UniProtKB/TrEMBL annotation:
Organism: Amycolatopsis decaplanina DSM 44594
Protein name (database record): DUF2127 domain-containing protein
Cited Pfam families: DUF2127 (PF09900)
UniProt entry tagged with the keyword ATP-binding: no
Taxonomic placement: Bacteria, Bacillati, Actinomycetota, Actinomycetes, Pseudonocardiales
InterPro entries listed in its UniProt record: DUF2127
UniProt keyword terms in alphabetical order: Membrane, Transmembrane, Transmembrane helix
Membrane-spanning segments: 20-44, 74-92, 99-116, 122-141
Length: 154
């Protein structure tokens, strides 16, 4: 598979991720905190995550418990993160040259933040997203170099 094809797949996934974050922010803004914590409690008490005293169940209960405290932050974060990603994806899909270094810096900042938050929150998902963002940064930089070479050759 070519690097450009991988790049296209990566930015498509990043665009979907950005759109899902916007939807997630909207849902968090509309749905009451009590509904979310009640849902988390129902999932844990019905053993849908395995042992109700297990690690995954504890993480879900803890996250739901902290949700009420950080709700505004979560909504703003999801909206901002989603909009930034969608804007970068739009510019990269149209091969706007100035967007490539900006995307590499912004996504690298997301990686640093994701690692920082993962360490402090013991999140299971954030390290996964950080690795994906590192792969996307590498693909963005490779595509940028290739486009620069193509423009010089033309």
């Amino acid at each position: 598979m070519s690097t450009e094809k991988l790049f296209r797949i990566a930015i498509t996934l990043k665009g979907l991720d950005g759109a899902l974050q916007l939807v997630g922010g909207l849902v968090l803004m509309i749905v009451p905190a009590s509904v979310i914590s009640g849902f988390a409690h129902a999932v844990v008490t019905r053993d849908l995550l395995g042992d109700p005293e297990g690690t995954l169940a504890r993480h879900l209960e803890l996250a739901a418990g902290h949700f009420a405290e950080g709700r505004t932050f979560a909504v703003v974060y999801l909206f901002a993160h989603g909009l930034i990603k969608l804007g970068l994806v739009w510019a990269l899909a149209r091969k706007v040259m100035r967007a490539y270094p900006v995307a590499a810096v912004v996504l690298s900042a997301f990686v640093i933040y994701e690692v920082f938050r993962a360490i402090h929150t013991h999140s299971l998902a954030l390290p996964f997203f950080a690795v994906l963002d590192v792969v996307i940064v590498v693909l963005v930089l490779r595509e940028y170099r290739q486009l620069k070479q193509d423009r010089v050759a033309a």
